[in-house]
Design goal:
The complex is a heterodimer. Chain A is built from 16 helices and no strands. By secondary structure, chain A is mainly α. Chain A has one domain. The longest helix of chain A has 32 residues. Chain B has 2 domains: 94 residues, Alpha-Beta Plaits; 66 residues, no CATH class. In chain B, 42% of the residues lie in helices and 13% in strands. Chain B has 5 helices and 4 strands; from the N terminus they run E-H-E-H-H-H-E-H-E. Classes of the chains: A mainly alpha, B alpha+beta. Chains A and B meet through helix 10 of A and helix 1 of B.
């Protein structure tokens, strides 16, 4: 066809001026407002639902908080892993998104503070989350110690120390690269990337067991940590992509992005949608076929009492629809369409986590508790985004001193 | 269209991939449609530059994939439900979750086979004879030669004008390709 778009022309011609300090300030004010409003809604709704005898307080409050916390932790850790991944693999997509991944990873600092309320709630939320290990039958004794509140708190401290350490060093070296004060900073980042990914794989395995899987302590699944980690990767990447696409019609991105970049971004999102579906289905298939009494209750709880519609909704909108859309060039190459798919996936991540966590609680037929989950999500998200935008606006949006930047922006 | 008996087209050779890419862009912008480029390795953006954008391949591969999915699922459904229904540990005869892996594999298999053979078919391969083989230099397209050919069947093709146009694109040389 003769009217084809060629790679000679960058996408998006309606470029607007660079994001000003004033605009960043306005966005950050909005984030602070969201935190306050979310927290207020969370407290008021919690009080209201508790007085109406509608919820299992305080357990429900902590579980709702856990959903929101896991969501934004996924954004942050997904960003950290992609930051390491792009140092290890290279490629234009990674350089364009690097600052966004760095800013996502920097939010592990406030998240380390935001987990503290959960530590106090351990004994309410988890059967074994007592401060002195609960006496139990000998078979489960080791589990009771491993999942007791002091052990979980100590492990959480170690996990956050590892993650924040990684995030700190990557940001320190890239800052040195910007300022031209470090020697071999890129080499250092590349050498830390691979062991960093290993550290993440180990820590996230134990974190997912402590924080999510042990909500039903008798249940176990070896795929679950992978499923949890893939959820985080999808969450972190979709979030970074949304931020990037929102900024992409402004300098320094406007005029620098070409359809080939957009296709790469879309294809990577497709890959992680498929990875997520593969893991989620694998666990379901093995548990369903095995039909063992230790394993199947997890799915029985999540497939009855209305949850069966949630499963179908997730299968369609977390997999089928984005899968088909992201195969089309017409979706990947258009900023608004790709943005819509990425935002849709971010919303589905919330529903997926909600479906993992909430059914482990007996809601006594009440269903307004989802408002608590949403307000906790807004409150934590507000502080996440406040910190994120603070880091992102602090430095140029592209790593200008990176030797591979010119290669990443070339148009042919 | 002029009548050019015995002439397949005009072949221009370029120094490097970048020159070929620029030439392809200019030729496409000049409105030529019956064109093709030849290089020893894939050059990113070359097909876009020539205006080759849409092909029938994705649709064919989709059809292949859907056929594979239906065959894979259908085979298992036929075996387990229609032909030889047996009760395995009380599971339903239509145990669809355990059929997904095979269905998935069949989807990939037929989609990729369609991709390989569809590509060969649409490219008209294998092709033992091609007029370009009449140009001795063209054998360098598999080593270090970067070529662009405008066929004489192109509606805009005029022997001298096209030759001058190609010569203006800074090629190493422009050759006539006999039929």
């Amino acid at each position: 066809m003769s009217h084809a778009i060629t790679t000679a022309h960058p996408i998006e011609t309606d470029s607007r001026p660079e994001v000003s300090a004033e605009e960043w300030k306005r966005v950050r004010r909005l984030c602070a407002l969201a935190t306050g409003a979310g927290a207020a809604a969370f407290c008021l709704l919690g009080l209201l639902l508790w007085m109406m005898n509608g919820i299992d307080a305080p357990k429900q409050l902590f579980v709702s908080y856990l959903v929101g916390f896991n969501y934004w932790l996924g954004c942050a850790l997904g960003g950290l892993v992609f930051l390491m991944l792009q140092y290890v693999t290279g490629g234009a997509w990674g350089i364009l998104l690097r600052r966004i991944f760095e800013a996502s990873a920097s939010t592990l600092v406030p998240l380390a503070i935001l987990i503290v309320p959960l530590i106090f709630g351990l004994s309410f939320v988890y059967e074994y989350g007592q401060w002195t290990p609960k006496p139990t039958e000998p078979k489960l004794a080791s589990k009771a110690v491993w999942l007791s509140a002091p052990a979980v708190a100590l492990k959480a401290a170690i996990f956050f120390a590892c993650w924040n350490g990684l995030a700190y060093w990557f940001r320190r070296w890239s800052r040195q690269q910007d300022e031209g004060t470090g020697v071999g900073t890129l080499d250092r980042c590349e050498s830390l990337g691979a062991p960093g990914i290993l550290i993440y794989a180990l820590t996230v395995t134990f974190a997912s067991i402590d924080w999510v899987m042990s909500l039903q302590p008798e249940w176990y699944s070896t795929i679950f940590p992978v499923m949890y980690a893939v959820g985080q990767l999808l969450n972190g990447y979709a979030f970074a992509l949304v931020v990037f696409l929102l900024l992409s019609n402004r300098p320094p991105f406007a005029g620098a992005i070409h359809p080939a970049h957009m296709r790469d971004f879309g294809s990577l999102l497709l890959a992680f949608v498929m990875f997520w579906a593969y893991m989620s289905f694998s666990q379901f298939l093995l548990v369903w076929v095995g039909n063992l009494k230790e394993e199947i209750p997890w799915y029985l709880l999540r497939a009855r009492g209305g949850w069966e519609f949630v499963i179908i909704f997730i299968a369609i909108f977390h997999f089928a629809v984005p899968f088909l859309l992201l195969m089309l060039r017409d979706v990947k190459e258009h900023r608004r369409r790709l943005l819509a798919v990425a935002i849709g996936l971010l919303m589905m991540r919330f529903l997926d986590l909600f479906w993992w966590i909430e059914p482990s609680l007996n809601h006594h037929g009440q269903y307004f508790y989802w408002m608590l989950d949403v307000s906790a999500w807004v409150a934590i998200g507000g502080s996440f985004l406040w910190w994120f935008t603070g880091t992102l606006s602090n430095r140029p949006l592209l790593p200008l001193k990176d030797p591979n930047l010119a290669e990443a922006l070339r148009d042919e | 269209m002029e009548n050019n008996p015995g002439l397949y087209g005009l072949l221009a050779e370029f120094e490097n991939p970048k020159a070929l890419l620029q030439a392809a862009r200019s030729v496409h912008e000049a409105g030529y449609t019956r064109i093709d480029a030849y290089s020893p390795f894939p050059i990113e953006g070359l097909s876009d530059a020539m205006g080759f954008r849409r092909t029938r391949m994705p649709l064919l591969i989709l059809i292949g994939g859907v056929t594979g999915a239906l065959c894979g699922f259908g085979l298992q459904y036929y075996c387990a439900v229609l032909s030889y229904p047996i009760n395995v540990a009380g599971r339903p005869l239509n145990s669809w979750p355990s059929w997904i892996p095979v269905t998935f594999e069949m989807t990939i298999l037929l989609a990729s086979l369609t991709a390989v053979f569809g590509l060969l078919a649409l490219c008209g391969l294998p092709m033992p004879y091609h007029p370009l083989f009449n140009v001795p230099r063209f054998s360098r397209a598999t080593r270090d030669g970067f070529f662009l050919c405008i066929e004489s069947l192109d509606p805009r093709f005029e022997r001298t004008a096209t030759r001058d146009f190609l010569a203006g694109l800074n090629p190493r040389e422009v050759l006539e390709v006999p039929q």
